[in-house]
Automatic annotation (TrEMBL):
Signal peptide: none
Any one Gene Ontology BP term: transcription by RNA polymerase I
Superkingdom assignment: Eukaryota
Protein name as catalogued: TAF1A polymerase
Pfam name, any one: TAF1_subA
Source organism of this protein record: Upupa epops
Record PANTHER family: TATA BOX-BINDING PROTEIN ASSOCIATED FACTOR RNA POLYMERASE I SUBUNIT A (PTHR32122), TATA BOX-BINDING PROTEIN-ASSOCIATED FACTOR RNA POLYMERASE I SUBUNIT A (PTHR32122:SF1)
A GO CC term attached to the entry: RNA polymerase I transcription regulator complex
C-alpha cells in the first residue's frame, strides 16, 4: 500500500543516514561513500508523492566524504560540486562559497576567484533578502582575494630595485585596491563579525594614508550597538591607536572594555602595566583587579609576566603600607580556592624544576597572601636558599619582615 511504502521508505532513509553518520564519525570514508550511494539510489526509486528535499544532505555529506576519501581527486570534487549547484539551486550561492573555500585550501587561488566571480553574475527568480545577503558575502570574499593580490603587488614594489617607479605593477596594484576596497566596505556595513574583512580594509586605508577613515571604521566596528559583542573589534582599535601614538588615556579606555568582555585576554599584561604607571589612584586600584582576574584562568597559571606584575604591585603596596585593603578585597574572593589552584606543594616542586623565575615571583605573592608558613613559600624559599641564590634569601627576609601585612590581609 502507499502508506506502507511511505513508512518503509522513511525508516530506510533514516537508517541509511544513521549508518552514514556512524561511518563518518569513525572516519570510514569508503563505507560512508557506499551508504551515500545507496541513499541517493533509494531516493531515485521513491514513487511516493511526498515532497522531499534531500539536496542539502547530499551536498554536505558528499562534500565531507570527498574531502577525506583517499581515492578522491580535485576533478571529482569539482564535478560533484557542479552537480550540486544544479540540484540545490536555492543554495547555489552557499555551494559556490564552499567550493571557493575548498579551492583555496588546495592552493587554487585563481580558480577560487573565478568561481566567486561567476557566482556574482548568477540570478534565480526574484532577488530575495537571503540571496542579497549571500551575494554580499560572495562579493566580500572575492574582495578578500583582491586584497591578497594587492598585497602581493605591494610586496613586489617594496622589494624591487625600482621601488614605486614600476608603473605597470603600480597601476595593477591600484586596480586591485579599488576592487578590494569597494567589496570590503560593503560587507562591513552590515552588522556582524567581519574580522578578516575589517583588518584588510583598514590595512588598505592605512597604506594610502586615510587614517581618519580607518579610525572611523574601527570605532564603528567596536562601538556600534547593532554589531554583536566582539573582543577582536577592541583589539584592532587598540592596535591602531597604539600604532599612531594615541594618548595613554585613549588606550586605557579601549582596554577597559576589552577587560570587561575577556578578562583573560593576553593584552591584560599591557593594560596592567599602563595602569600601574598611571598617577591616578583609581587606575592603580584597577591594575590590581585586572591582574588578579587574569590569574583566575588556567591559561595564565605559568605566565611569568603576569606573576611578575602582581608581585611588583603587591610588594609596592606592602612596603608603603597603603592600600592593603585593595589586596584584602581581591584576596577575600579567592582565598578559598587560589591556594589549591596556584600554591600547592606539588606546584612548588614543579615550578622550581621547570622555571626558577616563575617560582620566585609566585613565592613572593604566596608569602604575602598566605604568610611565611605557606607550603608553597616554605618549599621554594628553602630550595632557593639551599641553591645559594641571593634573591631567594632576600625574598625570605622580606616576607618574614612583612608578616604583619599578611595578618591584616587575611583578617
Amino acid at each position: 500500500s502507499s502508506h506502507e511504502h511511505k513508512t518503509n521508505f522513511k525508516k530506510s532513509k533514516e537508517a541509511c543516514l544513521s549508518y552514514i553518520q556512524d561511518a563518518m564519525l569513525q572516519k570510514q570514508w569508503k563505507r560512508a561513500a557506499e551508504f551515500l550511494t545507496y541513499y541517493v539510489e533509494s531516493l531515485e526509486k521513491d514513487f511516493s508523492r511526498e515532497r522531499l528535499n534531500p539536496s542539502e544532505i547530499i551536498w554536505r555529506i558528499g562534500s565531507e566524504i570527498l574531502c577525506h576519501h583517499s581515492a578522491s581527486s580535485m576533478k571529482e570534487f569539482n564535478s560533484f560540486i557542479e552537480q550540486m549547484k544544479t540540484l540545490a539551486v536555492k543554495r547555489y550561492l552557499k555551494v559556490c562559497l564552499e567550493h571557493a573555500f575548498h579551492l583555496l585550501c588546495n592552493g587554487l587561488i585563481d580558480e577560487a576567484y573565478q568561481n566567486l566571480s561567476l557566482a556574482e553574475s548568477w540570478r534565480f527568480g526574484e532577488q530575495t533578502l537571503l540571496q542579497d545577503k549571500e551575494m554580499k558575502l560572495i562579493q566580500a570574499y572575492r574582495g578578500l582575494l583582491d586584497y591578497c593580490s594587492w598585497s602581493k603587488q605591494k610586496n613586489i614594489l617594496l622589494h624591487s630595485q625600482d621601488g614605486f617607479d614600476n608603473l605597470p605593477v603600480e597601476q595593477e596594484m591600484h586596480s586591485y585596491f579599488r576592487k578590494a576596497a569597494l567589496s570590503l566596505k560593503e560587507i562591513i556595513r552590515i552588522p556582524g563579525v567581519w574580522d578578516p574583512f575589517v583588518k584588510c580594509y583598514v590595512d588598505l586605508l592605512e597604506f594610502y594614508g586615510d587614517h581618519n577613515e580607518a579610525r572611523q571604521v574601527l570605532n564603528e566596528y567596536a562601538y556600534n550597538s547593532k554589531f554583536p559583542a566582539n573582543p577582536n573589534a577592541h583589539v584592532y582599535l587598540y592596535q591602531f591607536l597604539k600604532r599612531h601614538g594615541e594618548s595613554k588615556k585613549s588606550l586605557i579606555s579601549v582596554l577597559k572594555i576589552l577587560h570587561d568582555i575577556v578578562p583573560s585576554h593576553e593584552l591584560m599584561i599591557d593594560f596592567n602595566t599602563m595602569l600601574q604607571k598611571s598617577k591616578k589612584r583609581k587606575n592603580q586600584r584597577l591594575a590590581l583587579e585586572v591582574i588578579f582576574a587574569a590569574l583566575d584562568y588556567a591559561g595564565w597559571k605559568e605566565n611569568v609576566k603576569a606573576w611578575s606584575c602582581l608581585a611588583r604591585q603587591i610588594k609596592q603596596i606592602v612596603i608603603s603600607e597603603k592600600h592593603l585593603d585593595w589586596i584584602k578585597q581581591e584576596w577575600d574572593t579567592r582565598k578559598d580556592w587560589w591556594p589549591a589552584f596556584h600554591f600547592s606543594r606539588y606546584l612548588a616542586k614543579r615550578n622550581w624544576q621547570e622555571n626558577e623565575s616563575l617560582s620566585y615571583e609566585k613565592a613572593l605573592v604566596a608569602g604575602i597572601l598566605l604568610g611565611k608558613d605557606c607550603k608553597y613559600f616554605k618549599y621554594l624559599s628553602h630550595q632557593g636558599c639551599k641553591a645559594q641564590l641571593k634573591k631567594f634569601r632576600i625574598l625570605k627576609k622580606f616576607v618574614n619582615k612583612h608578616n604583619p601585612a599578611y595578618l591584616r590581609i587575611s583578617g
